[in-house]
Design a protein that fits this description.
Blueprint (H helix, E strand, L loop, with lengths): L7 E3 L5 E3 L10 H10 L15 H15 L5 H8 L5 H4 L4 H7 L1 H17 L8 H21 L5 H8 L4 H4 L9 H18 L1
Antiparallel strand pairs: 1-2
């Protein structure tokens, strides 16, 4: 019988995460925060002295989601913070590459996402209505990123992401920080939200 290919990764926490069959017990927030703080959005094609990390993006999406859904419970705000959490081990692919890879990428992302959600007390599958609202917040963040650091004109960003409502982004801006700072803020925000659930 042929040997199965290695499908696990050793995490800094010491956990072994099976990427094809992840379980909640092998997931630690420190691993997620660390990984996301070093994964660059936009394939690193952004202005500035630091990459714009998925962790920084996730923090912004959670804030925007809170503005769009001010009465949302802490559990759904936590889901917004963790919306891209699987990328801590599978990386961030731009949409055209995801489409080219096909449904296998989405299936891997879904399995990891379900295990992450269960690890932190969320349902494995987030309700569609909540996912839609998180996606709205994600698009607001993408528009801001596109226009502030990724070289898009507002007209281009409007075409790709839709023009976001002003109240959702008022007073917010894209922040570029060292990974250590972003990792610490992501971990602290996760703890704060968990304490409210």
């Amino acid at each position: 019988m042929p040997k199965q290919p290695r499908a696990w990764q050793r995490m800094l926490s010491g956990r072994r995460l099976d990427l094809l069959d992840p379980t909640p017990v092998d997931i630690e927030i420190e691993d997620i925060a660390h990984g996301l703080a070093f994964v660059a959005r936009w394939n690193g094609q952004t202005r500035g002295d630091y990459a714009y990390s998925v962790a920084e993006h996730s923090l912004l999406v959670e804030v925007i989601y809170g503005r769009l859904c001010p009465n949302a419970p802490a559990s759904w705000r936590l889901a917004a913070l963790l919306h891209d959490a699987p990328e801590y081990v599978i990386g961030d692919m731009i949409s055209p590459v995801k489409a080219a890879v096909g449904p296998s990428y989405g299936a891997l992302d879904d399995r990891l996402g379900a295990a992450i959600h269960q690890r932190f007390g969320l349902p494995a599958e987030i309700p569609k209505s909540v996912k839609r609202q998180i996606k709205r917040a994600d698009k607001v963040s993408a528009w801001m990123e596109a226009t502030e650091i990724a070289g898009f004109s507002e007209a281009e960003a409007d075409r790709f992401f839709g023009r976001p409502p002003e109240p959702a982004r008022e007073g917010l801006s894209i922040r570029l920080r060292p990974p250590k700072e972003v990792r610490e803020e992501f971990t602290a925000r996760h703890a704060a939200l968990l304490s409210q659930i």
